[in-house]
Amino acid sequence: QSALTQPASVSASPGQSITISCSGSSSDVGGHKYVSWYQQHPGRAPKLIIYDVSNRPSGVSNRFSGSKSGNTASLTISGLQPEDEADYYCGSYSSSTTSRVLFGGGTKLTVL
Amino acid sequence: EVQLIESGGGLVQSGGSLRLSCEASGFTFSDYWLSWVRQAPGKGLEWVANIRQDGGDKYYVDSLRGRFTISRDNSKNSLYLQMNSLRAEDTAVYYCATESARTPLAFDMWGQGTMVTVSS
């Protein structure tokens, strides 16, 4: 079981919006701003799409946005496109003694 | 062009050792914290370890501490992961990644990964 909890899958049609949640604790997601999101297509390396809860790296579409409330972070993808179909992972700094970085278990996004 | 190229993966028997390498180009290697992140087949990401720009600070996930050692050679633009006493559960693709200069622990450049298979 992963330290951060994400839904296993989500699906929607092109043009729609989806939100993926990432639940943690006050020791990780809820305790600071160092929450990031990654997109991974099959057979490829992950790609950073959100850092510090809500910031987008240069070149990442503004259809991707991030937010946080309490111990839960969220990734929203608006105007879904077929190429958004991928796995999405949240990551967070953790003040626990077991690991400095925790990832969620990943969410498979299917664009119908 | 920014590149991170991992090597050193392969098939090893349980209890054996491997040394992974990650060679960087296209950016100032010594400016970045670096991490290893692994992904077991069909599973999610797991952070393994990271190392400060000068190699002075190193951190590990608790479950691997003592078996894995991270190191770097800035003169060779290279990152390493020495893996000892390997177990079947260490089977995974191992990625090297840079941590963003903007903020800690956000991984903004990744290699293509190297596969490690531990046979029992």
Topology overview:
The complex is a heterodimer of chains A (112) and B (120).
Chain A: E1 9-12, E2 18-23, E3 35-40, E4 47-50, E5 64-69, E6 72-77, E7 86-93, E8 101-103, E9 107-111
Parallel strand pairs in A: 1-9
Antiparallel strand pairs in A: 2-6, 3-4, 3-7, 5-6, 7-8, 7-9
Chain B: E1 3-7, E2 10-13, E3 18-25, E4 34-39, E5 45-51, E6 58-60, E7 68-73, E8 78-83, E9 92-99, E10 107-110, E11 114-119
Structure description:
The complex is a heterodimer of chains A (112) and B (120). Chain A is globular and about 40 Å long. Chain A is mainly beta and 112 residues long. Chain A has strands spanning 9-12, 18-23, 35-40, 47-50, 64-69, 72-77, 86-93, 101-103, 107-111. Chain A contains no helices and nine strands. Chain B is mainly β and 120 residues long. Chain B has no helices and eleven strands. Chain B has strands at 3-7, 10-13, 18-25, 34-39, 45-51, 58-60, 68-73, 78-83, 92-99, 107-110, 114-119. In chain B, strands 2, 4, 5, 6, 9, 10 and 11 form a seven-stranded mixed beta sheet that branches. Chains A and B meet through strand 7 and strand 8 of A and strand 5 and strand 10 of B.
Task: Write a short abstract of this structure.
Chain A has strands at residues 9-12, 18-23, 35-40, 47-50, 64-69, 72-77, 86-93, 101-103, 107-111. Chain A contains no helices and nine strands.
Classify the helix fraction of chain B into a percent range. under 10%
Structural class of the secondary structure composition of chain B?
A: mainly beta
Biggest sheet architecture of chain A = 6 strands, mixed
- Structure summary, number of beta strands of chain A: 9
SSE run of chain B: EEEEEEEEEEE
Rg from alpha-carbon coordinates of chain B:
13 Å
Total beta strand runs of chain B: 11
Share of β-strand residues of chain B: over 45%
> What spatial form of chain A do the alpha-carbon principal axes imply?
globular
